[in-house]
Amino acid sequence: MNPTAFLSGRLTPKALSMWIVVFICLVCVSLLLATLWQVKQSADERLANARSAVFNIVRAAEQHATDTVRQADSTLKNIAERIEVDGWGGAAAAASFATDGPQRGGRGGRAGAVHL
Questions:
Q1: What's the rounded Cα separation, in Å, for the pair 116 and 103?
Q2: Contact of 12 with 20, CB cutoff 8 Å
Q3: For residues 98 and 95, what is the distance between their CA atoms, to the nearest angstrom?
Q4: Rounded to an integer, what distance in angstroms lies between the CA atom of residue 81 and that of residue 89?
Q5: Among 3, 19, 33, 84, which has the minimal tally of Cβ within 10 Å of its Cβ?
Q6: Pick from 64, 60, 40: which is nearest to 52 by CA?
Q7: Burial label, 15 (beta-carbon count in 10 A; 0-12, 13-18, 19+)
Q8: Could you read off the pLDDT of 20-49 as tens digits, one per residue?
């Protein structure tokens, strides 16, 4: 390239063409980098949303399992208490139901509950 072309203030057609090509390449590279950055940001956001969704699902499953275990424990304790009070045999339970009715002798049992 001729050094006097820069000193005169005017570019030769060949130098002007070269600078136009360089400028267009820089614009293309900057657009490509901006697009890649946008794609990376979008992927990071999707990943964060997926992590949050998985965490919420795991927390809900854990809560459901805990509630199920508590309900089963409560039911088993209730059955054990009824067996302790009424006995294991069906005759004792039938006699208790026949004499006490569905309220289990006024001890605050639920109406219509099945007694063993």
A1: 13
A2: no
A3: 5
A4: 14
A5: 3
A6: 60
A7: middle
A8: 999 999 999 999 999 999 999 999 999 999
Instruction: Tell me the C-alpha distance between 56 and 33, whole Å.
Output: 35
Q: How far apart are CA 41 and CA 48, in angstroms?
A: 11
Q: How many Å apart are CA 83 and CA 88, to the nearest integer? A: 6
Residue 80 corresponds to which tokens in the numbers above?
Answer: 């054990």
- Tokens encoding 19: 């600078």
Q: Which of 72, 74, 81 is nearest to 107 (CA)?
A: 81
In this prediction, residue 10 has a pLDDT band, given cuts at 50, 70 and 90, of confident
Report the Cα 50 to chain-centroid distance in Å: 7
